Structure formats: C-alpha cells, structure tokens
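Data card: per-record layout.
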Amino acid sequence: MSAEQLAELSDLFVVAAVLLYFFAMVGFAIELAFGRSRPDKAAAVERSEVKQPVAVGAGGGPSADSVVAATPETREPSGGATRASKVALVLAWVGWAANFAAIATRGLAVDRWPWGNMYEFVVAICFAAVTAFLGTQIRYNVRFLGAFVMITAALGLGMAVKFFYTAAGPVVPALDSYWIAIHVTAAIIASGLFTLAGVAGVLYLVRGDGMSRLPSRADLERVAHRAIVFSFPLWTFAVIAGALWADRAWGRYWGWDPKEVWSFITWVAYAAYLHAKVTAGWRGRAATIVQLVAFACLMFNLIGVNIFISGLHSYADV
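The structure for this 318-residue chain is written out next.
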C-alpha cells in the first residue's frame, strides 16, 4: 500500500475506534445503571483490619460477613446488565485494536514514530488510557471505570480529528531522532495512567452518599493511587530523557522553555501528592484534590502549552 493509502486507512481506524469506544461506553453505562448491588466483602475485610479495633480477649478480628452490612455497596451485573457488560468489554478490546491499528498505519505512512504532532500525540494518549484500563481490568475488577474511560477516549479522539488533525507527513528536524521513541513513549504511557487516575479522582468527588451505583470512594482512591504510583517513575524518566534530548538537539539540558517548565510543574504536583500520602497520611478528599490539581497541570502541559504558548516545543501543527 502507498503512504497515502496507509494514511487514509489510519484515519478510518481512528473513526472506528471512536464508534467502538462510544458503544462500549453505552454497555458499561447499562451495567452501572442496572447492575445488582452487592457488598464488596474483600474491601470490607481490608478496611476492617485497618479501621476497626478488636477488643482484648475477643477471638480474632471481625468476620467478613459481620463487616459487610456496614460496607458501601458495589455493582454486580445481573441479567441484561451482564450481557451488556460482556459486550462492552469486547467492544472496548476491539476499539483498542482499532486505536492501535490507527497508530501503526500512521507510523508506516510517515515512516517514523507516529507522535510528532498534536494529533498523533492525542491519539496515542487515548490508546494509552484505554490500555491502562484494560490492563488493570485483567487483574482487578474495574469495570465501574469503563463507561468513563471509554467516553474520555472517544471524546479525546473526536477532538483530535476535529481540532488537531494534521495530514501525514515529515516532522521538524528536531523531532527526527531516536529520542522520540524514548522520551515521548514514556510520556504517553505515563499520561495514559495519569488519565485513568484522573477519571477515578473525578468520580471520587462526584460520588455522594446516595450515589451507590458507583463504587466506594475507598475503591476509587485505591485505583487512582496505584495508577499514579506506577506512572510517576515513568514521568520522571520522561522528564530526564527530555533533558538529554534537549542537550543533543539544542546544546543545553534546560532552557526554561514553557513545555519544560510545565513538565516539571506536573512532576512537582504528582510528587506532592505521593509525598502527602506517605508522610502526612493524607487520605480521601484532600489527597484527591491534590491529585486532580496535578492532572490539570498535566492536561495544560499536553494541550494548553502546545496551543496557546509558543516555544521550542510548539509542534502542535494546529
């Protein structure tokens, strides 16, 4: 196939991914809306070990059944909701494959790593976010995040097509380097995981005591924290790799370029979140707000800096 045909095929795969993510979102939403409520015994036991003291002379800690009654309920699919959740998960995987195919065919069309402009970068971040969700789902049951991750990915790809689209072609000389495979790839993976944490954080804040259709706040906070713990070292590596690339490209490691500054601000914000969790024992709403402030810094760094602030990293092509 010619480069033009591969580029057109990549565009079609992006559209297919948007549609698949949207219908997957509908399926996950049906599960949330009509799933059967059940207590989460595993989470109850874990919380009881931390929060409920055992009287001296009592034979061991509280049983799972004795704690469940006071434990927030989670959702278990039932009947039609079961089928909807299964279909949604299949659609999510097919959409993920279409998203990957869009990236692969774009790379073949341009004969380079396919994240040299804002359009390609957003497509890759949406892929990373869905990968984070599906990868987490393999080990833990986080289908409750499915509807929100799917709509985030669908909207992200839609914005990429509508506002950031750039025809396939070569990149500026500074980006024509093997460092793009190191620095940008690490930033994309970390951004995908940070997005998963951001979705969980937003749900934490909007979940009131009466919104039992969402999982417990403890579960949402746990998902967000695990995602950040895994992604923060990747972001750290991306910042360091970016400095090494800057030295090769421009002869200095740090030049206070807007992208460099906001990458560091994002790093500091997530470091503050992790530091507060470990040393100050922050939990709940306060920690979640810090996490979402960090996520806002990340989004401004990824999108706002490229569009509204000019600098050496202004490669948005929009």
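Known properties of this structure: The chain is about 70% helix and 5% strand. The radius of gyration is 22 Å.

See the next section for split statistics.
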